[in-house]
Amino acid sequence: MKRQAGFIMAAALMACLLILTGCEQKPKSAGTPASSSAPSINMQEGLWEITTTVEMTGVPAGMIKPQTFTTCLSKTDYVPKEKAATDCTMKDVKTDGDTVTWTMVCKDSTMKGRITYAGATYDGAMETTMKQDGRDMTVKTTMKGKHLGPCTK
């Protein structure tokens, strides 16, 4: 039982780390490119506060606390991320109106995400599949974002 609890906590922490690390790499050719002809998404550019909530099968509700971080977003870089994950590649970034979808492939996991912007807020979800100790694991994450103001960089 102790080993199973340790496995669940390790997997939960791994999922949170993957969500918060994002990829600094630009999208590959598939999907809508982030360029000067970027789509007109209803979002305010600048500093955003992102709160993520993770749920995993077998983990009691409330065991994994919501995580909050800030990041700068623009109309040419609209997928939230905090730090670079060097073993990840962003693929299939697409827009449809104010909704952005993407797939991020990392060394040990794959994430599929969706965000719908509404000016100064957004709602989104991401599903991560990974292997932990040889077992397949799926982690579902909800994301809420709110615009805070201009970036300080």
Structure characteristics:
13% helix; 153 residues; mainly beta; 7 strands; disordered N terminus; seven-stranded antiparallel β-sheet; Lipocalin; 1 helix; globular; 45% strand
Short description:
A hairpin with a 2-residue loop joins strand 3 (89-96) and strand 4 (99-105). With 153 residues, this protein is mainly β.
Structure commentary:
By secondary structure, this protein is mainly β. The chain has a single domain (2-149), classed as Lipocalin (Beta Barrel), CATH 2.40.128. The chain has one helix spanning 2-21; strands at residues 46-56, 67-73, 89-96, 99-105, 109-117, 121-132, 135-149. The protein has a seven-stranded antiparallel sheet with strand order 2-1-7-6-5-4-3, covered by helices on one side. A hairpin with a 2-residue loop joins strand 3 (89-96) and strand 4 (99-105). Residues 1-36 have low confidence and may be disordered.
Cα end-to-end separation? 47 Å
Please tell me the CATH architecture by its name.
Beta Barrel
Tally of helical runs: 1
What profile does the largest beta sheet have? 7 strands, antiparallel
Task: Give the topology, please.
Layout: H1 2-21, E1 46-56, E2 67-73, E3 89-96, E4 99-105, E5 109-117, E6 121-132, E7 135-149
Antiparallel strand pairs: 1-2, 1-7, 3-4, 4-5, 5-6, 6-7
